[in-house]
Amino acid sequence: MEIVYQPYIDPEFESLIERINAPRVCIDNDTCQHCTVVKVDSANRHGILLEMVQVLTDLDLVISKSYICSDGGWLMDVFHVRDQLGKKITDETLNLYIQQELCDTKMRAGVPKELQTCQKRKLRPCHISTEHTALEITGRDRPGLMSDISAALYELGCHIMTAVAWTHNGRMACIIQVEDGLKGGPIMVQKRLALVQEKLESVVEGHHENRDKKSVLLTAPAADRTHTERRLHQMMYAEKDYEPCQGCDGSCRYWNGCKKTHVTVETCKEKGYSVVNVRSRDRNKLLFDTVCVLTDMQYVVFHAAVSLKGSMANQEYFIRRQDGSSLASETESRKLAQCLVAAIERRVSHGLRLDICTENKMGLLWYLTRVFRENGLSITRTEIGTHGERASGCFYVTDASGNDANPRTVELVRQQIGGSVFVVNKSPNSSLSISRSNGEMEERPRFSLGNLLWSQLERLTFSFGH
């Protein structure tokens, strides 16, 4: 028998390299008149770009410019950011927090309450809490599914603390955090956990195509849980929601005003890169979603440039596989293109948005989703969380056929739900029209988290001393 010897690599070696070459973060409020410039120099490793984007988007900051270079084992990234009001980041506490988080992205534990206070609003958690039991649910989407899931949890005495659900191409992915409705805290009794899983699987799998595939996963409290939205992308990918995605076939020749998503993957033989070009409508967290797919599909971004022209965003990535090679086949390139289109489409909100703030109580999500269901409304996307005695979140709803909800039906729903309910519509000029419970209308300016403006970039090797 042949004996193969492999070198031992200490698992602490990578962190040692990072400690020797500690990241340098500069937060500059003087160079640019309208935004704060965040510059990061660091030793490179797989996934660090995504972690940096997470730091900024979790704080609801607007990334207005970004350019990336990570050749030769070292990265130099620049982000131009603003707050939701379009102003510079001048709060010293927030600047210090950004600097600390970018220097140690592996040790992230959510946004502290004092920073939420300085931001003057509650930031919804993007990391699964270490104090609750997490449920990951996937399956075929159908009308009333969220209502059935929340009803089952209510019957089992589970109090839903947060819930985030996406639907796309007939698929659904949902992450729910629950605690014991009687004792509080995570559910630790194994028999009860098994009962919860069995009940939820019976709700979901009655319409699931692959009975051999588990549709419900329960995870105990842990400090290393994946970022919620990144995990939703992974769950949707596992459901193969990308297979129907094609984007535009290019017959519009790009510049003829087409608003569809364009993705091309080409090979740069001279440098050994695969060049990915993405053109789509701009929206919030567009950069996060794109980089998330590239990272989780084990591609490394060496250079990137993103620009905005009107309402359309243009992204260009020079990538390789983790083993250093470019994409090997047309099939691989086509799959990557499909996955990028899917990642962009998943967060595109279909339907009318309802923002809800009401009293936090046992069975709240079941009650809300039951009201929607009884009035013939389907949920296409939801995000809800609890903050002490209050619960707040948003729901995107359509009628049972996927068309716009009837205004009279929406008004009836608002009256039944009670509390503070705001109906948010996208107006033709891209601002947000907000209908309050008293029927008055006001306009709120639109600030996209994914506004990535770099229209003057001509070359990826742009000088970092600029």
TrEMBL record:
Residues 134-215, 353-431 form the ACT domain. Signal peptide: none annotated. The keyword Repeat applies. GO terms for molecular function: amino acid binding. Pfam families: ACT_6 (PF13740). CDD domains: ACT_ACR_1 (cd04895), ACT_ACR_3 (cd04897). It comes from the Eukaryota. Keywords: Repeat. The keyword Repeat applies. Transmembrane segments: none annotated. PROSITE patterns: ACT. Binds amino acids. PANTHER family: ACT DOMAIN-CONTAINING PROTEIN ACR1 (PTHR31096:SF7), ACT DOMAIN-CONTAINING PROTEIN ACR4-RELATED (PTHR31096). This is ACT domain-containing protein ACR.
